[in-house]
Amino acid sequence: MVDEQRVRHSEAEEAAVVDSDLERATREAANSLLQAERVRNCVLDALDGQPFKLRPSRILDLNRVAIDGLDAYAGNFRPAGIKIGESKHIPPEGHLVPEFVEELCDYVNENWEKRTAIHLASFVMWRLNWIHPFTDGNGRTSRATSYLVLCVKLGMLLPGSQSIPEQIVANRRPYYNALEGADRRHEALGSFPENIVEKMEELMSGMLAEQLRNTHQHANGAR
Ligand SMILES: Nc1ncnc2c1ncn2[C@@H]1O[C@H](COP(=O)(O)OP(=O)(O)OP(=O)(O)O)[C@@H](O)[C@H]1O
Question: Which residues are catalytic?
Fold first, then answer.
């Protein structure tokens, strides 16, 4: 006899993901535009007076937009361990991810008035990559979240054709070096000293200047 109490199993749907390289490339390009638009809308909401707090749900959403249709875990924290190719850093175990992401959000929210826009954006860039909360799209999600924090803290949608995330993608080595510099400092001290992301701050400051310089040149007639 069938026990009625035992037949009510959940049947979860599986997330659909594309399988050809061409579809993947097309989807990645479309997602990247959607993610940039998502960041812009979040900045505009904050400028419109909606109080800004960095929350895990915002970070999850930026990951979902980046890898939707490309990875079954889009918008979810990874369930297990992960490695980063060619990096010495081993991200924390999967079960620790939610706690580390909450700690990152707390750091940003608690230091919002005390620290500069460059510091907060640099901290997010490093720490989110350090946590590596997702099965894929960690770089894209970290860059988008960092840029969101930078713009909201500055209180403006930054002008310029070559945004900081675009500059990083065009030349990744200094970005990897800055991530590794903070990894080493953190490993040695096990905490967040004031200058933990010094290298990333220098890099980001230079990239912000470049982004604004492009606007200045454009204003002077350069194409
Ligand atoms: N030493 C390091 N510590 C922390 N994060 C690192 C380190 N080296 C590289 N990374 C990050 O890991 C990312 C790769 O992770 P993943 O493949 O999930 O991201 P992605 O968004 O798919 O990649 P991409 O940045 O190429 O778009 C790199 O882009 C970089 O942001």
Answer: 132
